[in-house]
Amino acid sequence: MSKRTPTLQATDKLAFLLSLVPWLIDRAHVSVAETAKHFGMTEQQIRDAVMLIAVSGIPGETHQYQDGDLFDIAWDRFEDADEIVLTHLVAIDDSPRFSGREAAALIAGLQYLSALPEIADRGAIDSLMAKLARGASTRPSEMAVEAGETDATLALIREAVATGVQVEFDYVNSRGDHEHRHADPLRIESVDADWYLRAWCHLRGAVRIFRLDRISALTLTARPIEFQVGDVTLPDELFEGSADDLFVTIDVTPAALSLLADYIPHDAERATAGDRVRTSVRVSHYHALKRLVTGLPGMVTVIGPPEARRAVAEWAAAGAARYGIGPA
């Protein structure tokens, strides 16, 4: 006895079609068999639904269905290969869409995320990139994101954290001093495009923060770590103040305040200075200002003290000289 094909009520059929159309759009092309399996329906029901979609649409200004007012499919592939390919969409195409450049920028960002070691579901990212490419108003420019210099370091440190072993490395601090360290890796964190390692430094006998792009000659040892995360206090803030910190007065655009939140003391005063906000940041030494300020070009101006202004000005002048640009 053959299995009876279930019938759909009108409301069920409408709900099914509302789900079917966006599902087909997301997949670009899909077989009738796969569609039937996904929705738990027979292949003939799927074919009937596709035929209904092909005669659906929105009438134009004449209130009659003209060319372009109806959905359309690739009939040859539907009839010969049992594949569903929507070749013309109605109303959906009128919704705002990313430009080719916008889609390319988003795809480049997703490519960067896909390359990070902690991203496990790369399939979901690949699917999203494909949807962005198909949904853009024009073909996105082909872009590639080069792997960063810290990617290999990041992967090794993650392995050390997972296996609970000490690491050894050469480190250059912001003053340019070179030291060899061995440490118990505790936590990896990122701030904007920079990655940091919180670790128990056996040289200093305390928790220290290391920026990954200043680490070189990193090796994993066979020695187990001596300090676990629960054995030491790791504050919520990545950058901690100390009694030896220096305070620098800056003018900053309101949009950049959040980017400097880790450096602005909680009790720092804020005053309006034209279209900027005057406040202060806390740094371990004036040389730490150089990368902080140059990372926010045009958004931060160092007001004082003079030593801080001099450190940033000399850094900027040295960089400009490499391009043959004289002092302003």
From TrEMBL:
PROSITE patterns: WYL. Keywords: DNA-binding. It comes from the Bacteria. The keyword Metal-binding does not apply. The lineage of its organism: Bacteria, Bacillati, Actinomycetota, Actinomycetes, Micrococcales. InterPro entries: CBASS_pafABC_assoc_protein, PafC-like, PafC_HTH, WCX_dom, WYL_dom. It comes from Marisediminicola antarctica. Pfam families: HTH_PafC, WCX, WYL. Residues 248-318 form the WCX domain. This is DNA-binding transcriptional regulator. Residues 12-133 form the PafC HTH domain. Residues 153-219 form the WYL domain. One of its GO terms (molecular function) is DNA binding.
